[in-house]
Amino acid sequence: MRKLKKNLISTFGFLLLIALTVAIYYLLPYEKLLMDKTTLFGVIVSEVITLLGTLFYNTVSGKKKLTMTAGGYTILFGYQVLVIALSMLFAFYYRNAIATYKIIFVCLTGVFLISSVLVYFFGKKVSDKANAVDNAFRFFKALEYKTESLNSIDCKKTIHGELKKIDDAVKSCDQSVCVDTDNLIDESVNTLLEQLNLKERNNERILEICEKTMCLIKQRNAEVSRLKIGGI
């Protein structure tokens, strides 16, 4: 709903801007030549492109997409200002250089479109990385809660020592990224909780699961190390 409201406000604002541009053009008290019509067309086209870009960035904007949206809005504003300045320059000082104006306008629009694409994909990459870190953080906080709860269960000293090792190992993990093994670790911890809450515990089974869980954590750490090295 919020994004829809932003898009409606942006659309109304740009339609008003286009109407104002046309009104100023016709109210200026001088004979309109081909250059004037060409620059008017260029400004209106740039306003339409800027409107479409604004609607797009309004739609994809979010709390974790600041790099994308801030960069996108900056490029849109810069493009619009440059086109208006270019049009005024040619309308007042180079009234016979229509072909030159068209070439510069097309080049400027091309640079704007390429820059917008680059800003979008770079911003998306930054946003995706931030989301991945946030998801990893939330996953590990939930996992830490489970491993801490293991230590609160009354059990044999040998088993308690193994549970403490698991809790310490989880807390010392690199929590900036998730890998597939994380789900296996979570499943193994859940199994431990189930086994420890049974009325008749199988201590050998519990120790086996503890050993498996520690192996999974070591495997997970190795996977993260390889992932980080590959990402350099």
Please, could you describe this protein's structure?
With 232 residues, this protein is mostly helical. The chain has two domains: 128 residues; 79 residues, no CATH class. It is 84% helix and 0% strand. It contains seven helices and no strands. α2 runs parallel beside α4. It starts with a helix and ends with a helix.
Describe the protein's topology:
Blueprint: H1 2-27, H2 34-60, H3 66-92, H4 98-151, H5 157-171, H6 181-196, H7 203-231
Large-scale geometry: rod-shaped
Secondary-structure class: mainly alpha
Oligomer: single chain
Question: Count of DSSP helices?
Answer: 7
Question: β content, as a range?
Answer: under 5%
What can be said about the biggest beta sheet?
Answer: none
Overall pLDDT metric: 84
Descriptive labels:
2 domains; 0% strand; mainly alpha; rod-shaped; 7 helices; 84% helix; 232 residues
In brief:
The protein has 232 residues and is an all-alpha fold. Helix content is 84%, strand content 0%. The mean pLDDT is 84.
